[in-house]
């Protein structure tokens, strides 16, 4: 039973990392590339990755959905009454899995913040400073 629970948590953390990476790909990367003068690369990405245009057009929904997934993952990682098995080898694996969950969570948070900054905050900030 505990093996099934750990597989579900593993699936959820990789799904969260994938969704937050999608926000980086749809929202932050095109703005960064255009800023650096690589507009042709962005045009090529839009042609070759069909879902990218959809994600970019619905960036607030994409960011909102990934934020909800991140909140759910935070609840799974830090919910109360989590215990590891008492067997030493299983306890070691449990602690390692918890550490990896936290690492992947913080990596996902960093990716989400970058995507949010470039897609939502940067343009109004630019207008405000000019």
Shape: elongated
Number of helices: 5
What is the percentage of strand-forming residues?
A: under 5%
Number of domains: 1
> How can the largest sheet be summarized?
none
Helix fraction bin: over 70%
**Which stretches are poorly predicted, pLDDT < 50 over at least 5 residues?**
none
Straight-line distance between termini: 59 Å
How would you characterize this protein structure?
The chain has 130 residues and is mostly helical. The chain has one domain (2-129). Helix content is 88%, strand content 0%. It has five helices and no strands. The longest helix is centred in the last third of the chain and has 42 residues, at 88-129. The chain starts with a helix and ends with a helix.
Tag the structure with descriptive keywords.
mainly alpha, 0% strand, 130 residues
Summarize the structure.
This protein is an all-alpha fold.
Give me the secondary-structure topology.
Elements: H1 2-35, H2 39-48, H3 50-57, H4 59-78, H5 88-129
């Amino acid at each position: 039973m505990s093996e099934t629970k750990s597989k579900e948590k593993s699936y959820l953390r990789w799904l969260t990392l994938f969704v937050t990476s999608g926000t980086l790909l749809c929202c932050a990367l095109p703005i960064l590339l255009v800023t650096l003068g690589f507009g042709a690369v962005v045009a090529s990405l839009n042609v070759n990755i069909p879902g990218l245009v959809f994600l970019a057009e619905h960036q607030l929904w994409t960011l909102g959905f990934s934020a909800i997934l991140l909140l759910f993952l935070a609840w799974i990682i830090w919910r109360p009454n989590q215990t590891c098995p008492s067997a030493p080898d299983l306890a070691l694996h449990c602690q390692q899995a918890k550490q990896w969950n936290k690492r992947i969570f913080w990596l996902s948070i960093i990716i989400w913040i970058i995507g949010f900054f470039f897609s939502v905050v940067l343009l109004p900030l630019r207008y405000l400073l000019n």
